[in-house]
Amino acid sequence: MSEIATGTTSLLRASLSRTGKWAASFAFVSGAIGDVLNPLGPFAAYIALGAAVAALIIAIAMVLRLVLAAKAMPALIFATSAAAIAGGVYGIQQQTNSQNGVIAGLVPAVAELQQSLGIVSQKVAKIEKTVTETQKTVEAVKKSTDTVAKTTEEIALTQTRQTQQGTETQKTVDAVKQTTDTLAAGQQRQQAQVEKLQATTEQIAASIDTIAKGFAQLAAQGGTIADPKRPDEFYHNARVYELAGDMLNARRSYLAFAGFDVDAIDPYTRFATLLRVQDGKASAREVFGQLAEKAKAPSLKLVHLLQFDDAQRLDKLNAFIAANPDYAPAYFLLAQEFSEDRLGSQTLADKRSEATALTKFVSYEKDGGLLKYFVDQTQLADWLDRSRTRLTALGDVLDPSRFVPTLTPTRSNAGWSMTISLPEPATAISWRFGDNGPFTDTGMLAMNDQRTGKPMPNPSFELPDSTAATNIGIKYLDIRGRETGPFDIRFDPDSALQQGNKQILDQFWTSWIAFDAGGNRGLVYFTQMLSFRCAIRQVHYSLNGTALDKEIKMPPCDAKDPYAIPSDYQPYFEVKDDVKSMAVQVTYTDGTKSPVREYKRQ
């Protein structure tokens, strides 16, 4: 406190030496002018009051350190001097009751000057008005002064409270600081490790290509890395530990690799396999759920959804592909959902789905489009080999013209028997006549289908002989209960009859001709050709050679009773005993010809 008092005294002395003389002179002149103008109003009082208020405000500002003392001190001296001199003048005026001022009473020349200027002769009304206005101003100034004083007291009180609170806060801060310093030290060590790891990661430019090359080099060297820092080193250690049966360290290494958020599929599929074997699918789903929640790499999210069961897994996989249509590994994994290894037995729809997904996956091999998804390139090679092998086995399953049902009509004297041939085992078959209308189930046979272990659906149905040409719709349920079809198959009775007869003639051609049948020496029978004549346009033959210079005239085809032999037609002809052989060639209604068939006489 003594040092502050000494500094303030020195500053006051310096300011008085610089500004005291001119401030006092200027204040004296102001007081003299106020005295001369006293007839118009108590200007000396106004000056004294204004200067006092100014001095008070300046002093408060200096105390609160709102302004620098060195700059405010001259103004304070001037305001104080003006207030003192003007107040003194006003006091003398009140004691002497001099309305024209003290100077005018002492110096007649000043009184004459006031009269010559018309000051004293001001109208009383004007003076009163001015006095009234001045009084109001004085009251306003006084009110402002009171407000300033009140504000000053409030500021002082607030400062006192803040000082007390600051003391208490400081104690709390000091108490917390010790704990914070301890925590900060630990955080600094952890941050240093993170920065070191980040620096290492940035140095290797953690691309899949770089990681893959590093992994390949480490795999060639063998053994574990004592102090792994890079993703490829953690993955390498995980594989070494896993193959050595050290699953705990393998798991730790896989988790460390996952911390780099590398978008590669093979480390995560291998890690998931380890977790499923060790802890079950639920545990694998939980671990990858936590990893996927924090990660940005799509590969982590993809492997996570693979840990769900069956239909839920397939739905999530399809949703992932819809959101990431160019993420190649997803198509290989989708193909596995329809594979024979996964399902045990495949439907035609399963095979087509598998082939479609594998074809899509293999298409990304062009221009190295699959390399960026694999750290271990041997894993990529394995996926590609498996894909090509399966596509070869699946063959042309994607050909839309293949693997569709067929319909084989067989004509009898009673009507048509329609036999359905399906490209795969079915659990139910139905058909309809025409393009519209309900389907009719064919029913079940009294036996089980060994392929499905379920009752075998009846593969046939009957139609009347009067059936006209139309479409017949066929659909069926596969072994998973999925409906396939309908397939519209064209049925033309005339064409079906001709094709059916032709098939029988070609299949049983050895029965076209019979020499000396039934002990009838010298007769040649052609009964079979006659029965299936609806497929025949012409029959040429020759005896003892292949000249085919003779013709057997067939009766017209009777579509209503196609296999009946007309009562007036003779199904044989006579030959001499020197005939030892007969050559026959049939021209069918579709324009094709049979081979020349030769028959020996016994």
What summary fits the major beta sheet?
Answer: 4 strands, antiparallel
Q: Which parts are unreliable, with pLDDT below 50 for 5 consecutive residues or more?
A: 1-5, 118-125, 199-206
Coarse morphology: elongated
Tell me roughly what share of residues is in helical segments.
55-70%
How far is it from the N-terminal to the C-terminal residue, by CA?
A: 154 Å
Strand content: 5-15%
Strand order of the largest sheet: 4-3-8-9
Mean pLDDT: 82
Topology, number of strands: 16
Class per helix and strand makeup: alpha+beta
Tell me the number of helical segments per DSSP (H or I, 4 or more residues long).
19
Radius of gyration: 59 Å
Note down, in words, how this protein is organized:
The longest helix is centred in the N-terminal third of the chain and has 80 residues, at 124-203. This protein has 19 helices and 16 strands. With 602 residues, it is α+β, with helices and mostly antiparallel strands. The chain has helices spanning 2-36, 43-63, 69-96, 102-106, 108-116, 124-203, 208-221, 231-244, 247-258, 266-279, 281-294, 298-305, 310-323, 329-337, 340-343, 348-363, 377-394, 493-507, 527-531; strands spanning 406-411, 415-421, 428-433, 440-441, 444-449, 454-457, 460-464, 470-477, 483-491, 514-515, 523-525, 536-543, 550-552, 572-574, 581-588, 597-600. It has a 4-stranded antiparallel β-sheet with strand order 4-3-8-9. Strands 13-12-15-16 form a 4-stranded antiparallel β-sheet, with no helix packed on it. It has a 3-stranded antiparallel β-sheet with strand order 1-2-7. Helix content is 56%, strand content 14%. A hairpin with a 4-residue loop joins strand 5 and strand 6. It starts with a helix and ends with a strand.
